[in-house]
Design brief:
By secondary structure, this protein is an alpha/beta fold. 25% of the residues lie in helices and 29% in strands. The model has no long low-confidence stretch (mean pLDDT 94).
Length: 385
């Protein structure tokens, strides 16, 4: 049984196809053209007046719907994944904040099992810590933070091939060696929660660190040491073209003018949109996995208001914020939500663009950038459930 999406403004790698048609066979896109001809025995979706773009890929997300991936259970994973699917995230890399080795192993085992389920949107596991600088810990749970432990991380990686990304503070003892190890094992090494200056960021990049976690958050900027100016981590990352960045584009973690600056300097091809969302995102109750966290001003904060502690954003909100507040063209916001994270995470062969032969992961917005439809692997998702 075929599905045909008709009359939409379709974003392809070659640009916009106005009034186009997408034909889906099962999980795959089999044709994209400008024909309005209806195929026989086909389920038709009329996308008149809608922007049709690739499904979002969230490479940094802690939970949603009241569930946190740190719980490590199938139920928590399924709840959080479905919450974000309804908001346009058709591929997801569940993220663990700083955790114990046993918590990581439990969640990794669950992740591996769920990746094998038909129609799974889970692409792999992302570990944010526990090897982080305590001075830049932000909302991370302090008792889990530590320096890199080769025996620990090498054993985890050996046992769980689902791990696709690991965030580390490069200034810690053993961090640069870990970056080399991650690079060797085809795991994205990301700079995170750091006070690294230009020389250290450059050394980290040479050691395999090619990505920056939640850019502008939990890192230093230009500052004075007595009477002299010194560059921070942010300036260093701008100066190294090969380092990609991710931004929590909720308009709060990163205000609209800074979103424009990142887009101007790094460009859509080196910038990914992430939610960094917590369990309270789209949840029936406003409690967080971490009892220290409160919800205020549209974000998660530590109760003492000393730091932000994640977001309550969803993929559709990120795209809308980029377009409506930061004045970033929709086609670039879409690339930042789909093609760029797909390329960073090594799944662009099947995800991240509307092309023949790729997975039928498609989302649609009206002219006010409100989400109107989600297709995941060819299945239309009830976005109101």
């Amino acid at each position: 049984m075929f599905t045909q999406i008709l009359n939409g403004n379709i974003l392809t790698p070659q640009g916009w196809l106005k009034g186009g048609s997408i034909i889906i066979d099962g999980e795959k896109i089999v044709e994209i053209n400008d024909s309005t001809h209806l195929l026989p025995d086909t389920t038709v979706f009329d996308a008149t007046g809608l922007f049709v773009i690739p499904g979002g890929i969230d490479m940094h997300v802690h939970g949603g719907g009241g569930a946190d991936f740190m719980e490590g259970t199938s139920e928590a994973f399924r709840t959080a994944v479905h919450t974000h699917l309804r908001h346009g995230t058709t591929s997801i890399f569940p993220t663990l904040a700083a955790s114990s080795a046993s918590m990581i192993r439990k969640a990794a085992a669950t992740c591996e099992n769920l990746m094998k389920v038909p129609q799974s949107t889970i692409m792999g596991l992302h570990l944010e810590g526990p090897y982080l600088n305590p001075a830049k810990a932000g909302g991370q749970i302090p008792e889990y933070i530590k320096e890199p432990d080769y025996d620990e991380y090498s054993s985890i990686i050996s046992d769980f091939p689902c791990i696709r990304r690991w965030d580390v503070s490069p200034e810690l003892d053993g961090a640069l060696s870990m970056g080399c190890y991650l690079f060797k094992h085809n795991i994205l090494a990301a700079i995170a929660h750091t006070e690294a200056d230009y020389d250290l960021v450059r050394t980290a990049y040479s050691s395999g660190f090619t990505h920056a976690t939640h850019f502008y958050n939990a890192m230093t900027s230009v500052h004075n040491v007595r009477e002299f100016k010194h560059e921070g981590t942010i300036e260093a990352i701008y100066l190294i073209d090969g380092i990609s960045v991710e931004v929590i584009a909720d308009g709060i973690h990163v205000p609209a003018p800074i979103l424009r600056l990142i887009h101007k300097i790094k460009g859509a091809e080196h910038t990914a949109l992430v939610t960094d969302s917590m369990a309270v995102t789209d949840a029936p109750a406003s409690h967080a996995f971490d009892a220290r966290v409160i919800i205020e001003d549209g974000v998660c904060k530590l109760a003492d208001r000393s730091a932000l502690a994640g977001s309550i954003a969803t993929m559709d909100r990120l795209i809308r914020t980029c377009v409506k507040q930061a004045e970033i063209p929709l086609e670039d916001a879409s690339r930042m939500a789909s093609a760029t994270p797909a390329k960073i995470m090594g799944i662009y062969d099947r995800k991240g663009s509307i092309e023949r032969g790729k997975d039928a992961d498609i989302i649609m917005f009206d002219r006010d950038i409100n989400l109107k439809a989600v297709f995941s692997l060819g299945n239309k998702i009830d976005i109101n459930s």
